[in-house]
Amino acid sequence: MPQPDITLDALHLEDLRNDRHPSAFDVAPNYTLMILRLPHFDKTLTIESTGFVITQTQTWRYDGEHNTFEMLSERFETMHRLLDRDVDTLLVEFDAFRSRVVELEATLYAPKEGGKFMHRWLALKHDLLRIEQLLLRAGETVERLILHYRNDATFPYSRYSDLHEHLVRIERSASLQLSKLDSLYHFHNARTTEKMNRMIYLLTILSAIIMPLNLIVGFFGMNTTALPFAQTPQGTLYASGLLLSTLVLSIALLLWVRQRYM
Predict the structure, then answer these.
(1) Interior/surface letters 15-35, b for 16+ CB within 10 angstroms, e for the rest
(2) DSSP per residue over 24-93, as a string?
(3) CA angle 215, 217, 222 (to 5 degrees)
(4) What per-residue confidence (pLDDT) applies to 2?
């Protein structure tokens, strides 16, 4: 396996081969190691790791797919171009990803909200939390690289500072989207609670109207003698009139209470 002309620590080799290793910057006696783990978006969120070994004279890029090292043409410039390309792609992809939060917000404010809000909210929350953590760690790693090599005359400090600023900007944007998701969740809860309160209110009104009618029907349904209207030819008509009058009075009373106290 082609590799740098120095002895790499066995743990560092293991870290490079581990495609789930978090972003890290480590200093060894003869080289420095940087692993940068960044998110990418296609139809779903994917995470890619890139490893670099920087010696006194050259930089090597680790190819995890083929388990080989590729020597870069320039010590810092080529590495910057590779990382800058990835970060620029990430900026574009994250702008598209943010539109998913905007779409979720639009559906929440629509007159008829869909029933999949919580499913979409949880998926976005999960992805954004991972993105925020990945970018936070990546930004710290690049910052450590800058601090370590800032006194090196061949190190393009301004370019790597710009790269670090882009990572921090995306990380802050991810944090902002998380805050927006939390606000949408609170609004959704308030809206759901309002609907439940409205349903309970309607059920209470229906109960208040039906309860007197049930009492009257239950009274006339008792299996006893000498009930009112029992011996009257138009007893059913009188009983129906009583029910109708009770219904009208109940509704009128509810409307008066609502207008007076609500």
Answers:
(1) bbeeeeeebbbeebeebbbbb
(2) EEEE-SS-EEEEEEEEEESSSEEEEEEEEEE-SS-EEEEETTTTEEEE-SSSSHHHHHHHHHHHHHHHHH
(3) 95
(4) 59
Does residue 5 lie in a domain region?
Answer: no
Structure tokens at 193: 């609670």
Q: How far is Cα 136 from Cα 19, in angstroms, rounded to an integer? A: 18
Q: What tokens does 220 get?
A: 């006339």
141 and 87 fall within a common domain? yes
Q: Rounded to an integer, what distance in angstroms lies between the CA atom of residue 246 and that of residue 209?
A: 9
Q: How far is CA 143 from CA 52, 70, 140, 146, 182, in A?
A: 15, 24, 5, 5, 30
Q: Say if 28 falls within a structural domain.
A: yes
pLDDT at 115: 64
What is d(CA 76, CA 145) in angstroms, rounded to the nearest whole number?
11
Lowest pLDDT segment from 44-53, 67-76, 114-123, 132-141: 114-123
Residue 142: closest CA among 31, 32, 13, 259 = 32
Q: Same structural domain for residues 182 and 233?
A: no
Residue 4 is assigned to a structural domain of this protein: no
Residue 61 near residue 82 (C-beta atoms within 8 A): yes
CB 126 within 8 A of CB 97: no
Q: Are residues 244 and 167 in the same domain?
A: no
- Helices then strands (H, E): number in the chain? 5, 5
Domain count, the chain: 2
**Strand duo 32-41 + 68-71: pairing:** unpaired
Tokens for 42, please give them: 């296609």
Strands 32-41, 45-54: pairing is antiparallel
- Structural domain includes residue 252: yes
CB 41 within 8 A of CB 97: yes
